[in-house]
Design a protein that fits this description.
Structural class: mainly beta
Distance between the termini: 35 Å
Strand content: 35-45%
Helix content: under 10%
Radius of gyration: 20 Å
Largest sheet: 9 strands, antiparallel
Number of strands: 27
Number of helices: 3
Shape: globular
Oligomer: single chain
Bound molecules: beta-D-glucopyranose
Length: about 375
């Protein structure tokens, strides 16, 4: 193939990859401050449907087929905007400016000590008091059926330096992939860690202990009692953190293991086994009774696997159903927690003139 043909073939495959059959939008209500919020429905040719709101860039609903072809809901969330405006643990949300924890809610950058909000004991979690999950993003429906969301996080917002412009694009492809492309730029040195915090249950309801997980990771980052990494990259071999072979999530979750006790289950970052920064398979989840499978591909170095240990039924989700402990799982592709204080971890620093980019793909099969 000559160069021109190769280029055309690439463009064609990219276009096909991005082709979502339809995007429609509607009103989703107003924030407490009176800002209008929209909801977008992306539907592909197989009938897979994802609903996303520009409030927090949240995935509100995701319906994928089971082994009989029946469409069913696989993410936890609320029927209306009100639920998202109330206190909830980041259901479906985009997380930033710094996803996951920053120890003692402070870090030093260019010899300046920055303080960020303490909203998780002594630590800062998921961007602080009003992170990217609680703001209204500027939406744009793309010609190729994607949804672009833009948010400008101002210099000093939640304690972070630099005006940071973040663009997230959601695409639903005809091969049942939900693709999330993240980009960020800044006008001052800053730190950035972006993820999506969807809670999945491939069965639709009940606990997720029978879901079978594979993680492409030889090591994980053990934590202290505040769930801050100790800095060690510990081999998973011989521990309940070894998911290199497909294993039921519930098989070892109650083992007498210090790390499991600290997390009240799984709530840890795994170090993805990768060469380079290309899109690689990070996780695979299968749900035996429905036959649903979700594969997570990412360009990121880590993944937080969280088994919904802190869910306790006090929040009522879709259909008014209480959201109970361990009835959903998160696979948050990310940089490692507390990287701004861990020089040996892959860097989360972003400088002016450089664009941060990452991609995560959730691929549904059966
Ligand atoms: C954290 C959990 C936390 C949850 C909701 C996850 O990313 O690792 O510890 O409870 O988010 O805030």
């Amino acid at each position: 193939m000559n160069k021109t043909w190769a280029a055309l073939a690439l463009i064609a495959s990219t276009a096909a990859m991005h082709a979502a059959t339809k995007i429609v939008s509607g009103d989703f209500g107003k924030t407490r401050e009176g800002e209008l919020v929209r909801i977008y429905t992306l539907t592909n040719k197989t009938g897979v449907e994802v609903k996303i709101t520009n409030f927090g860039g949240r995935i509100v609903s995701l319906r994928v087929p089971d082994k009989e072809g029946a469409m069913g809901e696989v993410v936890v969330g609320f029927d209306s905007l009100e639920g998202y405006l109330n206190e909830n643990p980041y259901f479906g949300a985009l997380i930033g400016r710094y996803a996951n924890r920053i120890g003692h809610a402070q870090f030093t950058l260019d010899a300046v000590l920055y303080h960020v909000p303490k909203n998780d004991g002594d630590n800062s979690l998921h961007g602080g008091t009003r992170g990217f999950d609680k703001v209204v993003w500027t939406p744009r429906e793309l010609k190729d059926g994607g949804l672009e969301l833009v948010y400008l996080s101002k210099d000093g917002e939640e304690g972070y330096p630099g005006n940071c412009k973040v663009t997230v694009v959601y695409h639903l492809t005809d091969s049942n992939e939900l693709r999330v492309d993240y980009a960020a730029t800044t006008d001052k040195d800053t730190v950035v860690n972006l993820t999506n915090h969807s809670y999945f249950n491939l069965k639709g309801s009940g606990d997720i202990l029978g879901h079978v997980l594979t993680l492409s990771a030889d090591r994980f980052t053990p934590v202290d009692s505040g769930l801050i990494p100790t800095g060690e990259l510990k081999a998973v071999a011989g521990t309940p953190f070894d998911f290199r072979k497909p294993t039921a999530i519930g098989a070892r979750i109650e083992n007498d293991d210090e790390q499991l006790k600290l997390g009240k289950g799984y709530d840890h970052n795994w170090v993805l086994t990768r060469t380079g920064t290309s899109l690689t398979l990070a996780a695979r989840v299968t749900e035996p009774s429905t036959g649903r499978v979700m594969e997570v591909f990412t360009t990121q170095p880590g993944i937080q696997f969280y088994t919904g240990n802190f869910l306790d039924g006090t929040i009522k989700g879709k259909g008014g159903q209480p959201i109970l402990r361990r009835t959903a799982l998160c696979l948050e592709t990310q940089h490692f927690p507390d990287s701004p204080n861990k020089p040996a971890f892959p860097s989360t620093e972003l400088k002016p003139g450089v664009e941060f980019n990452s991609t995560t793909v959730f691929h549904f099969t059966k």
